[in-house]
Each structure stands twice: as structure tokens, then as C-alpha cells.
Specification:
The structure is a homohexamer.
Chain A: E1 12-26, E2 32-40, E3 43-49, E4 65-75, E5 78-88, H1 107-120, H2 124-136, H3 138-146, H4 160-178, H5 184-193, H6 198-201, H7 212-216, H8 219-233, H9 239-250, H10 267-294
Parallel strand pairs in A: 3-5
Antiparallel strand pairs in A: 1-2, 1-4, 2-3, 4-5
Helix pairs in contact in A: 1-4, 1-5, 2-3, 4-5, 4-10, 5-9, 5-10, 8-9, 9-10
Chain lengths: ~325, ~325, ~325, ~325, ~325, ~325
């Protein structure tokens, strides 16, 4: 297919793209037309349907995959696609992976890693809880494996939530080996569950935006509520253990001003908040450096790629001397 | 009875007091004795049981009401009670109100006020929710009416939680009259429920200290969880309404750094956070000024009673000129 | 008349508008022309006078109401008006309300409400002070009723200052009923006077911008100075009462970092700072939600209207379920 | 006279001291006695009048200078004076300088320096204003020369306000020489007036505590009000100049959170805020180092004298190597 | 020469300019061309080389001085230069001062002032250190005299570092006269050395951007390292004196959050941090007011020139009344 | 030996203790005596030498180990030792481990671990640098292995610096395995060197207090200076690598306000700052929980051991349910 990053002035387009937004508007003469943004995994393009009522234009909606025919022109320095024909594409006639950013870690490997971590938890109550949440709820399982970990910032791609979760759980596993005072089963369980609320906080790809519940309640409390509910359904689950697990979820942002209603008061909660933070920061730097490599920012001049708001610093890739 | 504030050097005591703390210790000669703190609503006194194994001293525990006989002496400038006889007092042989600070608002009046506010809510779902929480759960109802609103700070007395809740709900009612855009039923329901988590966050009087759940989870999330649970049990309860009510509870501290995991995003949540704050601040000032009147600090010198950490200012009572 | 929001490419205009700015400039060929911004209550438009010295163009100034004839063209995606004829409009030939945003509360109702609140103050000194400031100074009275409460943010329209002041005084009145320790007369007087300095801090409509005095001194100190001056002119005015009223004015922003040189140290000052803040925040939300309704932002998508800097949160209108 | 720092166990005292506080109390047997704190410039001592109604004890008040006879004993490690005889001392029978900390700069020198700075201001309006405030108001002049610049912190001694003011004005004079864009007359006038409100914010020695007006209004606004009033009384005083001078006073703390209702917006206001701050900080360090020399803290160990809250650091005297 | 601020539509250009940036790009038809930004001391202009391989276009690089011939057109409202001929200019065929902003203080005068300050330091070790750093290292000396004090903000011109350094040293000299406790030689030495690290933190003009070392280490630590190294090379240099001088360099930003790893703990360090700050702030204001005069912002309207981020306030020039 | 925690009223003492402080004082009768604090690893005790000039009392100094004979009495509720005989103890007549808190990790194991980590670094320059610093400088090596990591807070015992350093390096090793973008050799080298400045910032045990250099310069810059010096002495050491290593040291506190003059701009610097922080926080919690176990605070009541300033929260040990 012709990816959007390869569009040029005068190109003829006939391919399937994802509809990101769609708005009706009026020309100065009062004629209706449509403003559309199309997307694939290489970028987005402004498109216009000047004759929305012509027979070649079928009905379509935001987030539909549509087959379009049209011409590229350049307007105000940017590409613009004039659409002459458009119809909703049949499932199977396109590969969704071409339209969304995807984790570089293979899905099967992440499945295996998740399964292994869950099996490694020996405490019967925590083991049961993990199985109910991740394995017996097929709908959740599927969503969890495909979800993004964030709207933007870091891990903002298909599979990002699983990748981030496994990474945090792995770091927690390392911490547990180094600090024998840490209760490994509690810590690993909390790590696996810490962001499950994001499945409801953010809508799934391709929309990937905050849900109403996400904005009103937030993934921290949503996740806490889910683990409390599941713990309550398991016979004999010790209430203190449930409260400790709940505390780890609530405190995982580490500071009140980052949205945690409690500061870490248990060693496991403290360890989890560090694991979450270190993965977020290192992945943010990695993604920013990779992006700079791609767009050439890191090779022009002196290698410094500019100020990053999350890292709160300019940064560059480490030299190859070490 | 002889209240603790009236103890003096040489006084003979034979009355019932509340045991606040009890610790075994050794004299320099290695003999065991007991350090005890006794309390009534006028204050506390150090007491010693020098012969804990004598026949006159029965077994007792912290927070028991005990009948004691002994003598007051002065040690290092403070009263100290030497206990010769001690036994646990029978319920009925003392009036609990003599041992704890109590709201000045009569309980019946608060009952009536609560009942009237609940009746004023016309939305059927919210009305049902309030009835389940406050009226049909007799155990909760009783605890709610007797609970303190805080460990210290403001409303720290029997009935304080109910008094604070009613005051906040009343202010919200006023706001709803002045701002027609506010949904009154949602706002008043949120006001009545905003601190229900405190019944589990703080243990009941006379202990009145943070519970394990209170420290790990906190009253904001406990309260949110309770209203979510009840809303879920009511058939047809609109999920959006449940989320909006939940948001008001979560956001009622107004700022992340005060422990709310969400900032107010709805007008009702904003109004509630102000009502909660204004009642807390004005009551803090009122209690501080009253305490200063009692201990004479407000009349000696110029009337300024000193720096108050919560108000973050020195303060004084307004003159009677206005 | 043809409102600016209805201008379109090719439209012919012949109507009265308000001159917001006017600057002389040179074309590339060195010919002088005028850059003008015209305004009515629906918006603003760039306009050019290409032949400022032609007989059809009279002399005019910023903030004049001018009758213009010209054509609308589109330049860089925005409307632009080419003015061929222009003269200053005669008073009476236009209705000023068409050119400025106006409070939705009728002026007479606000007059009545102000008068009633002033009459309700029984303390003779405070009553006298309010009458001198609001009733006997006709010039101030007129300005106060027409002034905006802010340059932008909230209550930024004709009558906004009066509307905000009355709202704050009303909330204070409610507070005084609920908290008997509050001195109602002092509190209501302070509420009515708290923003009088804005009449000098902001210039009147249509300019509505910070005055030199406003930037150097600020409305808090200007208002304080005015009430001190008036109190000093009233025989027998108790100095302590004057200082207490002054303190309420100085402390009404509640925190030093919001520009109050003193934190509230009296209960009335505390209550006033809350009343001011709650009205500002709820009105900000109301105006933002109304604006979003108007420009369609609240109906497209999920109803969330975007991040608001003053509220420091995204927000949406509460659902109609409650 | 025998200074308080020279009291010892068993010493016999018969001299004049200043009464700092006086409170009636009851012994355990219910007998009235007086708790008194006496002061001279070397320190304070607890004193008791066990027989307040004996013929040798006359009536006296806080801040009286009293002649006392009594014995020193040591109680809980501190000296205590048992007073047997006490009468109010006649003016002239003692030298007030022995009872209060005093500036090390001679009063005449400060007078001369003030007078010279005032004469150096050539702008007729500013010159007139300075003369009215400092020279023609004899009562203010006397108070200003004797006042402390602070309750504690820095320059907390008789003459401290004048010493600090002259120092700040001198630094401003230096700045004006180095930065020709600064208007010297405005800057020096603002420097001389910047703390005049302290004469009303703090009561005079020996009490030296915040006045009611000081707590409610504060020296910044009090000083601003005074210069505005005086400027208003001078015919032809340019209003813009008055506002600029007022702004310098209001902004002299440099930041809103330090109690200035405006941040410096003029170069002179910026320069003044630095001059005020540098004098405060260097004098704080100097006084702390001198005090450490006196009490031996700077010579024991390594010369570091401990954490100072205002400087927000530990500190030591610079070595004599440089 | 024709300065860039005098370019106009249709102008013919044939002069020498400085190349600020140079990037190759493709036209829509895939033909290579060059985007170039040219600069002189009056501003910058976009330029295009449409035929980079034509014989009239020689090879050139960023920061070369180039002789160009071409035409000015207006594109999107801005001037654009189409370059037909271009060659690197020979040194001597242009005056570098025409291409860079330059300090208004003559270089010779700054040389004399530096030399005099160094001579005024009597302590033999400090004197030796200053001579090694400033006088015996000719390469450093030259760079120091030409360097900018900042990338933007204040003193961002040729000679700015020397001008700022001399100004700070002068203020410190004034402070030493007013505060006899200050060790003048240490203070003046620290002032002269406080920003020497900037010679390595910022690359020289015309690039004037952060170096790799500047971003990784920063001028504070670079400068500290240099003075430590030099002190270590001087026989008998007292280690305590070296540490004190080092401390002054490290602490000269005054606060940890401004990048100083230590807060001022010596009086000289405190004085230096104030001198640095006062010069930075007053110069920032001066430059902003001058710029506003130039671009007319200070005369249109009311003289207020807009919010300045460093000053954190709007500002205006003081009136000429004082 | 009789440890100080086992002293009791009337006990007779004849053993060796460490002298922590020693001060001469005068009794009320003007007789000289000595105030001494003695220490062993179980605590400290006040001691008095009432007859410092008696033949049984030899000359001694702070931090000497002294053999004393005397009696314990109780004064103001605390033990006090009256010393009758005292002489400096011979080395070998006591075991230093009885007088200081010591790491629970065996020294040999830490030696082995350090040696292994250094060997694991393959980059020749970094390997050389580590060998020079840790292995070839025997004096430093010995100090490093015995030093404390802090004056108080965490790892405040003999061997604490080595234990903390190895722990941080181990975590960094784990990070390097999980994040392939990290340069392991640079990261591990930085981890091993990050706190070497503490050997000079804090004096060795038993004094263990801030040195003059520590207070003026701080361990971050001291350590940076040392690695720069060593790198400079190694032929061919790449300057960029030296700057990157230096940056990691400078940025290891993560935030300017924690004393780092640079924020992490390289991935290794970011990873190191997290490793340092996680070890500090988990060790702080572990030490606090252990201390609470020892003094019984964690078993009385509900297990919550009280607010910890560094953790900024109350805390408790996790239950054994998990």
C-alpha cells in the first residue's frame, strides 16, 4: 500500500485508510463538504470530500477503515487529499497493524511471560486473584494485551500496556531478590495489577482517548475497585492482605500530587512505585531518542535532541565510547 | 463526680474514669508497677499502680471504665494519682458523656435534620441510595451519629462527623439555591455521603484513632467504594449518575496534594469541595477561639491567640464593634 | 445590523462598529494605510483603510463608534474588511449593547438587590460607609454598575462587577445565617466593598484593560485605601472596626501568592475569601460550559470540553440523570 | 549594677530591672503569688514574689522599671530570683540603655546620615515628602530613630530600623551610580520610606511586639498609605510619581509569597527589593556569627555554628586566610 | 552595506552576510535546493539557493561569512532572498561587528577595569590565581573578553560575559565597603571568577550555543574545577581558602533549584549571589525596555511592554517625573 | 563488658567506653569539673568527672577509648555516671566493634563483591579508572570499606557506604540486563563511584560528622572532581566518556533541589538516580521497621510505627499473609 508518509504533490491514491475525524463544513458559497483526517501507522493527512452526496461516496463513520480514491495536492505547504470515491472497507481487506503503532515485543512472547509470572506466585489467594483477573476473564485478557499504556507520553501503542506491566513486574522481581524483606508474591501481584484500570480509563485503539469513567474516576481507583471486588469473591481471602494489595495499587504513583490518594506505607508499595517510575522514564527517553533518530534531529548538530517535558531536561544518546 | 481538672495535691479520689493507656514498668529495684493514664471529659491524669498484684487491683484493659481509689500528689509540677484499689466499672454505673468531648448540637436535632435532608432528595435513585446507606443500615447509622469527624483538628468529638456532614450539606443546599446550574439532588447526596468513609477510617470513641484500613486506603476511597457498591445494588441506577456521584466523593478535597485522586471536573464536585473546606476552616477557628477563651489566652495581652497551623496565621476574635 | 460573525467572502458592509485598535502602516511601495480592528458583541474583524486620505474617510479614534462601508474578502483564511468610506457615528444612531458583552441579570434587579443589602446593615458606621461609597458618589455608582469584574477569566462583561459582588455578598449572608459567630454586618459590608478597587484597576468598557494604577498598585490596595479614607471621614468610626474591615479587604484572596498581603486572621475575612473563590470558580465553569455549548464543543464527542487553566482540570456538564 | 548574666546561686540582688511579664498564680495550698520575668540587656530571669501583699511589695505593671531586693537560687538548672522587696523605680534612677539591646551605630551619626540623604534628593516633590515624613513630624522622627526593624530575626534592637533603613538607602545609592537607568531620587526616597510602616506594625521598645494594626494590615500597606497621604497633601505632586513611589513600597518584598501584593515592575522597585534583601541576609549572618562567638559555639569544634532558618543553611565565619 | 532590517520586496542585494543555518531540501518535483538563514546585527532573513550546483554557487558552511547576490521577494508576509551567486568572503572584506550584537562598553575600558580590579586584590594567593587565570592564559583572556554571558536572556552579545563580570565585581566592591565583615579580596576574586565556566559552557560567537560539556557538566562546576586546579598549582595556597573560594563559585546561584549544589554558607558567597542576581535582573529589564523602545511597543498604548518571564511581571519604563 | 543499655541506678562500672564529647564546666561554687558523654554500640550516657585534677584521672581526649571506674545514679530520670578513675585504654584491650554500629554484611563478602563488579567492567578506560580509585589507592580503599553512607538517615554504620554502593551497583546491573539501550559499563562504573565523595564529606567513624570540605563543597562535586582527575591521568581516556561519567555523578540526586547541579540527561544518569533512591528508601524503611521491632513500637497497638520524615508517611511491616 502507499503509506501516508510517501504522499507527494500530484500523487494518485487508491487504498484503505483509517478515518480519525470527520466534520461537515460549508464553502463560502454555502455548499456542504466534508473535512476528514485519514491515518495509517506512518502519519495522518487532511482530506476533503467536495461532493459528499455524489454516488461514489458511501456513508461512513469515524474510526471506519475506508477505501478511497483521490488526488494529492499541496495546500499551505501540507499535503491534502481530494477524495473522489470512498466506501467502507471489508474486514480482511486490510491489515490493522498497518494503521496503528504496535509494540515491538511479539504478542506470544508477552503472553508467555505473563503466564509464567502468574504461575510463579505461590500464595494461593493472590494466585487465584491473578487467574480470575487475567486468565478467566477472556474479554479483559484480550483488551489488556492490545491496550496502550498511555494516551501519549510512553508505551502509547498497541500492546503497550502489557509491555509496560511485564517490565514493571520484572523489575519488582529483581527488587525482591535483592531485598529479602520484600514479600515477593504481594509485590509481583501488585505489579501485574497496578495499571489494569487503564483498560477502562482509556478507550481501546484506534480511538485511544480518555473515557468518561477515566476522567471522572481514574485508573488508580478503577483498578483498586476491581482487585477489591475479586478479592471479596474469593473465599477466605485474608482482609489484611486485600488491604495491603489495595494500598499498593492506590500508592503506585508515589506522591499525592501525582494522583495517588495515599503515599507508600509498605515496602512493597514503595518498591512498586519506583519500578513503575523507572520504566516510564527510561522508556520515555528511549522513545524520544528513537524518534529523534528517525526524524534526523539526533544527527544534525551536536546530538542533543531538545527539551523533553516529562524528563524535564534536554537529552542526548550516550556516546559509543563506553 | 470529681472531674480531673479539679484534682489537687492531697486530694482523695474514689470515682470512675476511662483508661486511656496502660503500660507495665520496673522500678529501679526491679519491682513491677503500672503506668496508667486516666481520662474524663475535662482532661487526663498520670496514675501509678505500685502494687499491681495486690488483691485490691483487678484485671483491666485499655479503654475500660474503671472505678479507682487513690491519692493525688504533685510530681514535677503535675498531678499524679497513686491508685490503691481498682476494678472495672459496671455499665450503667457511669455516664459515658462524662468521659468524652461531645457535640454541642443535640442528637435528636441532628437526626431530624438528616432525615429531612434525605427526604428532600427527589431523584429516585439517589433517594434510594441515601436510605440504604443512612436509614436501613442501623449499625452504620448509629456509628455515623456518634463518630468524630477527625482525630484532632476540627469536629474531634462525639457527634462531630454528623455535625460536620449536616453543615456541609446545608451549605450545599444554599449554593444550589444561588446557582441554578447546580444539580441539587446530586450535590446534597454527595454532601451527605462525602465523609462516610470516616466511620471506617477512624475507630470509634473512645479510641478515635486511625484504623489499619484508614491508613492503607483512606476515607475518600472507602467512601467511594461504599457508594459504588450501593448504587450497583439498586436496579436501574444510571451508571453515569453513579460515576458523577463517585467523582464528587473522590474530588472533595479539591486538590491532588490534599489526597483527592481527581480534581473537581463537575460543578457539583467543585461546590462540594468548597463547602467542605469552608466548614472545616470556620469550625477550626471557632474551636481555637473558644479554647483560647477557656484557657485565658484570648484575654491576656491583645487578644491574639497565636499561630494556628491549619489556618496558617495568627488570629483573634473579631471585636464587638461590628 | 449585520453582525461580524455573519461576514462572508464578498459581503458588502454598511453599518456601525466599534474601533478596537488603529495603526498606521506602510505598504511595500511606501504608501501609508491603516490597520484597524472593528468589534461588535459577536466578534472582531481585521479591516484596512487603503486610502486614509481620501475624502470619504473622516478622522477617527480608537473606541469611537464608526459607520463604515466596504467589502469583505478572505485573506489567509480569515475575513478582512476593505473600508471605502468611514465616519464617526452619532450617539443614538447605534445601540451600545450590540457592541459589548452584557450581564444577563437585569440592571434594575441588581440595583434593587444592592440597595436592599445596604439597608440590611444595621451597624451605623458600616451603614454610613456603604452609603457614602455606593449611594452618594453617583459617579462611582454608575461605574460600579457597568464595570467588568475582570479583563478576561470570569464575569468579563458589562455589569459583571456588580453581579459578582452581589453574588459574593449573598453567599456571605448565607454563611452568617449558618455560623452565628460571624459578625454579619462586617461580613456583608466587606463583601460589598471587596472589589471596589476594580473600578480603578480596570478601565471601563469598551477598553476594559488594566490601568497604570491597576498595574502598579492593584485593586486590593486601591479598595483598602478607599474604605480607609471613607471610614476616616465618618465621625466616631471605631478604629478597630476600620482595621477589621480593612483586613477583610486585604485578605480576600486568601493566600499571599494570590496577591493578598495578609492571610485571613478573622473569621469574617476567612468567610469572605471562600465566598469570593466559590463564586469565581462556579461562574468560570458556567461560562466555559456555556461557551462550549455555543461553539459546539460540548456536543461533539463525549461532552468533555477541554482543559481549563483556572479550574486546572478538563470538565464537562453534569448529566441530566440527577 | 549586677547584670542578669552574672547572677549565681546564692547571690543577693538589689538593683533596678525591667518587668517583661507578670502573672498571678496559686501555690498548691491555694496561696496567691506572682510569676515575674525581669530583663536587662544581658538576658532575662524568672522571679517569684511569694508574698505579693506584704508591705515591701508595691503595685507595679508590665514594662515598669522596678527596684527589687531578693536572693538567687537555682531551680531545675536555672536561676530563679525570690523577691522580698519591690517598688517602681523613678525615672532618672536608671539608664534605659542597660535594659535593651541597642544599635552599635551612634545615634548622632545616623541622624547626620539621614539628614544628608534627604538633602541629596533634588526632585522637589520627593524632597518635600521626605521632609514632611522624617523632619516635620517630630513624634514620628523620634520613634523612627529608636524603633527596632524586627521582632526578632535581624536588626532587632533600639535604633535597628534606622540602621537598616540607612543601610538600604546607601546600597540603593551605590546601585544608582552603577546603573544610570535608575532614577536615583525615586530610588533613594523609596528606600528611606520602605519600612516606615514598621513604626506602627511593631510597638516600641521595650514591648517590641506586633500591634493589632500590624497583624491586620502589615507594615507594607501601612507605609504605602502614609506616603500616599503625604503625597496627596503636597500641591502639584505628580500622580504618576506618587503611584511609582507607592509601587516601590508595595513591591519591596520582591515576591507575592513574602507579602508584597505586587511584584517589582519598575527598575527602582526591583533594585529596592534587592537592597532590602541583601541587607537583611548579611546582617542576619553577622548577628548569628557574633552571637556564636559570644556563646562559644563558633570556637568549639569546627567553627560551623548550626543551621539558620532564615539563611536556610548551616554557616561559619570565613577564615582569616583571605 | 544594506542591513537586513532594510530589505524590501523587490530589493537587489549584493553584500556579505553570516550563514546561521543551512539545510538541503527537495522541491515537490524532487529537485534539490538549499534553505539558508543569513544574519547580520540587525536581524535574520530566509534565503533560498534554488540552483545549488550552478557555477555561481561555491561550497560554503554554517557560520561562514558569504558574499551573496540575489533578489528579495515577499512570501507569506515575510522577506525571502533568492540567491543567484554566493561565495565565501575573504577575512578583511567585512567587519565582524556588523554581524553580531556587541556590548556598548568599549573593549579597552573593560580591559582596564579588569586589570585594575585584579591589581586591587592584595592577598598573594588570590592575586596569583587571578593572574594565572585572566592574564597569563592568553587564549582564555581573549575568549573571556569576547564571550556572551548567556545564550539569550541578558548580556547575550559579544563582550557580555566581561561586562557582566565587571559589573558583578563592582557591586561586590561596593558591598565590601559597606559591610566590613566581608573579606574583600575573597569576594572580588570570587566575583571575577564566578562565570569563567561559561567560556566552555557556551560556544563562542557566532554560534553561541550550549556545548556538550556545558549541557552535561554546566558552567558552575566547570568554573569550580578550573579555580581548584589553579589553586592546586600555586605553592602554599591555603586549602581552606581554596575551599572557601570554591564554595563561593558553587553557591553563586543562591538556591539549589537554580543549579547551585550548595546554598551560601559564607557571607561572601551570600553577597556574591545577590550581586549576580541584581545585575542579571536590572540588565534584563534594561534590555527589555530598550527593545520595546526600538520596536515601538513602549510608546503605543500606555507604556507597559508586556509580561517578561524572567522578571515574572509586566513592566514599564519609569516616568520622567522623578 | 557491661553495655550502657544495661546501666541502672546504683550500678558499679569498670570498663572501657568511647569518649564522644568532653567539656569543662564550673559548679555553682566555681569549682571546675568535666561533662563527658561516653558511648558504646548500645547507646550513650552522661558522665561527670567531679575531680578532674585528682591523681586517678589521666589526660584524655574526645574519641579516645577510656577505661573508667565509677557509679551510676539517676538524675532527672536519666542515668548519670560519676567517674572516680579514668585512663586511656591501650589498643587491643577492647574490641572497637563494641563501640560502633556495624553493617550486618561481612566485610570479606563486600570485598569480593566489589572486586567482582570491577572485573566485570570490560571498557579498558573505565576498568582502569576503577582500579586506580578502588584498588591502587590503599588508603582510600580502607576508608571506603569502613565509611558510613550518611551521618544519620540510612546506612549510618561502619561499612554502610560500601554496602549502599554495592547495592546500587547491583540494581544498576539488573537495569542494564532489562534495558539493552543502557551502556552497562558506564552505568556500573558510575554506580560504584557515585558516592566516593562521601569519604571526604563525612569524617570517619567514630566522629562521623560533616567535614569542612563536606559542608562547603559536598560529596557530589568532590566525587566528580576525583573521577575527572583520575580520567585525566589515564592516557587516551575519551573526553566525551569522561564527561558522561562526570554527568552521571553530578546528576545522581535526580533533581536540582536535592543538590544535583544537573538533571539526568543520559539514560545511565537517569537509571543511576533511581537505583540510588530506591536503595535509600527501602533501606530507610527496613532500618525503621527493625528499630521499631527492637524498641517494641511495632508490636504495641496496631503495628504502625509512626511518621517517618524521609518516607513522608507513617508505615508498618507488611503482614505475613502474603
Amino acid at each position: 500500500m502507499r503509506f501516508i508518509e510517501n504522499f507527494y504533490d500530484g500523487a494518485r491514491v487508491s487504498d484503505v485508510y483509517l478515518v480519525k475525524t470527520k466534520n461537515a463544513a460549508l464553502t463560502k458559497n454555502g455548499k456542504e463538504y466534508l473535512n476528514v483526517i485519514l491515518q495509517d501507522r506512518t502519519g495522518q493527512v487532511d482530506a476533503k470530500v467536495w461532493e459528499p452526496n455524489s454516488p461514489g461516496i458511501s456513508d461512513f463513520d469515524v474510526l471506519d477503515y475506508v477505501y478511497v480514491e483521490g488526488n494529492v495536492t499541496v495546500y499551505n505547504g501540507s499535503n491534502q487529499l481530494s477524495i473522489q470515491r470512498l466506501r467502507v472497507a471489508k474486514e480482511g481487506s486490510y491489515d490493522p497493524k498497518n494503521y496503528l503503532p504496535v509494540s515491538s515485543r511479539p504478542a506470544e512472547e508477552m503472553e508467555a511471560s505473563l503466564s509464567q509470572l502468574i504461575k510463579s506466585v505461590k500464595n494461593p489467594y493472590l494466585s487465584r486473584l491473578l487467574n480470575i483477573i487475567f486468565m478467566e476473564d477472556a474479554d479483559f485478557h484480550k483488551k489488556f494485551m492490545l491496550h496502550s499504556a498511555a494516551k501519549s507520553v510512553h508505551h502509547g501503542y498497541v500492546g503497550g500496556l502489557a509491555e509496560h506491566t511485564l517490565s514493571v513486574a520484572g523489575i519488582c522481581d529483581d527488587f525482591a531478590r535483592r531485598y529479602p524483606d520484600l514479600h515477593r508474591d504481594l509485590l509481583v501481584t501488585a505489579a501485574l495489577c497496578h495499571d489494569i484500570g487503564k483498560v477502562r480509563e482509556l478507550t481501546a485503539f484506534p480511538r485511544n482517548d480518555y473515557s468518561d469513567e477515566g476522567q471522572l474516576i481514574g485508573h488508580i481507583v478503577i483498578g483498586y475497585q476491581r482487585i477489591t471486588e475479586v478479592a471479596g469473591s474469593i473465599e477466605g481471602f485474608p482482609p489484611t492482605l486485600a488491604a495491603e494489595l489495595g494500598h499498593c495499587i492506590l500508592a503506585h504513583h508515589g506522591e499525592l500530587e501525582f494522583g495517588s490518594p495515599k503515599k507508600p506505607a509498605l515496602m512493597e508499595a514503595m518498591a512498586l512505585s519506583f519500578a513503575d517510575n523507572v520504566d516510564a522514564k527510561l522508556e520515555t527517553m528511549r522513545e524520544a531518542l528513537d524518534a529523534a533518530d528517525k526524524n534526523g534531529k539526533s544527527t544534525e548538530g551536536d546530538g542533543w535532541i531538545g527539551f523533553n517535558r516529562l524528563i524535564d531536561s534536554n537529552m542526548r544518546r550516550t556516546s559509543s565510547e563506553s
